[in-house]
Amino acid sequence: MKKFQSLENFSNKSSLSLIKKPSVEIKERVRYSETDRMGLAHNKNYLEWFEIGRTEFCRHQNIPYSEIEARGYYLVVVEAYCKYRKPLGYDDEFNIKVILDQLTPKKAVFKYELLKDSKIIASGYTVHIVTNSKTEVCSLPADIIEKIKAIKP
User: Fold this and answer.
1) What pTM did the predictor assign?
2) Domains with residue ranges and CATH for the chain
3) Is 36 in the active site?
């Protein structure tokens, strides 16, 4: 896994591009089952690839989703957005870039880019609230927040 150091390539450029935030980049490939009749990746897969990236982000931060859930906390998606720019086809290799944009005890925002040959294929974000097993909004403990926020080499 490669680390993505800045927001420079994210489509919503702002002063945030100067702030170093936790991030990760992973390689992925379009599987045959992810394509439509035209041989292109179906649009539903883009949000799944965002989830794959987010899951790997947490693993990279040494706090896998499974550990967060085992401790009784859930990061529930309350908003998701994807801007499709170019199609991906069967067997195309691409990168998923994930960056933690915001984190409070009760909310997390992740930004994503899917890139092929350094060109943006899609970009987006997800907003999550923290709940317990009864789906009541609650706060993440400080140790989980620190692991998620840590800047890794």
Assistant:
1) 0.86
2) 15-149 (3.10.129.10)
3) yes
